[in-house]
Amino acid sequence: MKQRHFAPSQYHLSLMQRTRRRLAWEGQEFGPWQEALRVELLELIGGFPEERLPLDVEELEREETDDYVRIKIVFTAEECADAPAHLLVPRRARGPLPGMVCLQGHSSGMHISIGEARSEKDRESIAGDRDFAVQAARNGFVALALEQRCFGEREETEQEACWDNRCLDAVFHSLMLGRTVIGERVWDVMRAVDLLQEQPEVDPERIACLGNSGGGTIAFYAACLEPRIKVAVPSCVFCTFADSLMRIQHCGDNYIPGILRLAEMGELAGLIAPRRVLFVAGREDNIFPIDGVRRAFATAKEIFEAAGCPDNARLIVGPEGHRFYAEPAWPVINEMIAEC
User: Fold this and answer.
1) What secondary structure letter does DSSP report for 21?
2) What is the DSSP string of 238-271?
3) Statement: 24-338 belongs to CATH 3.40.50.1820
4) Which of helix, strand or coil describes residue 3?
5) Is-contact 219 102, C-beta < 8 A?
6) Which of 51, 89, 276, 325 could cross-link with 318 by S-S, CB 3.0 to 4.6 Å?
7) Are 199 and 99 in contact (CB under 8 A)?
8) Is there a contact between 211 and 234 (Cβ–Cβ < 8 Å)?
9) Radius of gyration of the chain (CA)
10) pLDDT in tens for each of the 340 residues of the chain?
11) For the stretch 179-193, what's the b/e string if a residue is b when 16 or more beta carbons lie within 10 angstroms of its beta carbon?
12) Helix 30-44 vs helix 214-225: crossing angle, to nearest 10
C-alpha cells in the first residue's frame, strides 16, 4: 500500500527541504549581501512607523537601593502604544556608563527583570538568572527593563480571551495588517535605545540588549536591524529554524511570514556583524536543541569571519535547560562592551 501523508507538518517539512533561500550565505561579497538581507528582513517583519513620536516620558515611582536607583517610567513607542519600563541607574559607578535594554520572554512581566517575584513561578524565573536589569546595574550598566507587548502590564485587556495565550490575538491582528509582533517589539526596543541615549549617565555609543527566550528573540532581531545596539545577548533562542520552529511547537510570536524563502537564522546573524553578539544556550534546552544551536552558530561564525571580525560572535552553552546563565555570560558581556 502506498504511504500516505496526513499530518500538516509532513508537508511543511518536505516543502522546507525543497525551498531555496534566495539570500543564503554562499561566500559572496559580504557588504552587498548584508545590505540586501537587511532590506528584505525589514520588509518581512512589516516595516517600522514612518514617524518617531516624542517619547513623552512620565515618571511613575522611584526607589533607592544600596546598588542603584530604580525609576519606573512609561514612554510613547508609537501612536496608541505606550511602554512601561524600569530604569536602573547604578549609584557608585562613574559615567558615562553603557546602557542595557533588558527583555523578559513569555512571563508575567518586566518585574522579573528587577528581581520582584509576585508568584512561585516568578521566583523560579528569577532563580534561572532572569533578573537581568539587576545584574546589569551591578555590572555598571544603566539598565532599562522594558515591558514587551502582550506581557505583564501590556497584556490584552480590551478583548475577551478565548484561549490561554498572551500573544496569539496580537499575532493574528498584526498579520492582518501586514505587520508582525516581532517587528512591533523591535520598534519598542529602538525607542528604548532612543530613551537610553537621552540619559545623562549613558554613553550613547555603548548600548547593549539582553533577553531570554521570547526576549532573546527580540534581542536578536533588534540587533539585526538597529545598528546602535553594539552588543547583543540573545539567550535560549538562537537555533536553526529547521531544528526548532519547524519541528517543535512554539508561540506564534516567533514566526515571520516567508523567512525561510529568505535566510536561515544563522545567516540572519550576519546582519549583526561587525558588531558583537554573545549567544547563550542551554545544553538541555528542549525547544531550541543544542545540535541546531551549534549548526546555526557555525554559519554565523563563517559570516563573521568573512566580515573580518571572527571573534565578535561567541557562544556560551550552560549545563541545564531553557534559562539564562549569568555566571559565564557576564565576563564576556563586560569584555565586549569594553571593546566598543
Assistant:
1) P
2) -S-TTTTTTTS---GGG--TTGGGT--HHHHGGG
3) yes
4) coil
5) no
6) 325
7) yes
8) yes
9) 19
10) 888 999 999 999 999 999 999 999 999 999 999 999 999 999 999 999 999 999 999 999 999 999 999 999 999 999 999 999 999 999 987 879 999 999 999 999 999 999 999 999 999 999 999 999 999 999 999 999 999 999 999 999 888 777 777 788 999 999 999 999 999 999 999 999 999 999 999 999 999 999 999 999 999 999 999 999 999 999 999 999 999 999 998 998 999 999 999 999 999 999 999 999 999 999 999 999 999 999 999 999 999 999 999 999 999 999 999 999 999 999 999 999 999 9
11) bbbbbbbbbbbbbbb
12) 130
Query: Which cell is 319 given?
Result: 549545563
Distance CA(10)–CA(77), nearest Å, equals 40
The letter for the amino acid at 127 is A
Place of cell 512601561: 84
Cell numbers given for 86: 524600569
Give dist(CA 305, CA 297) in Å, integer.
12
CB 316 within 8 A of CB 324: no
Which positions ≥6 away from 26 have C-beta within 8 Å? none
Name the 3-class secondary structure at 211.
Answer: strand
Cell for 65? 537601593
What are the residue boundaries of the structural domains of the chain, listed by start?
A: 24-338
CA dist list (Å): 192 to 101, 243, 308: 7, 32, 30
Can you tell me the distance from the alpha carbon of 89 to that of 17, in angstroms, rounded to the nearest whole number?
A: 49
Residue holding cell 516567533?
A: 254
Sheet holding 81-90, edge to edge: 58-64, 68-78, 81-90, 142-146, 97-103, 202-212, 229-235, 276-282, 313-318
pTM score of the predicted model? 0.97
Q: What nine digits make up the cell of 115?
A: 528581581
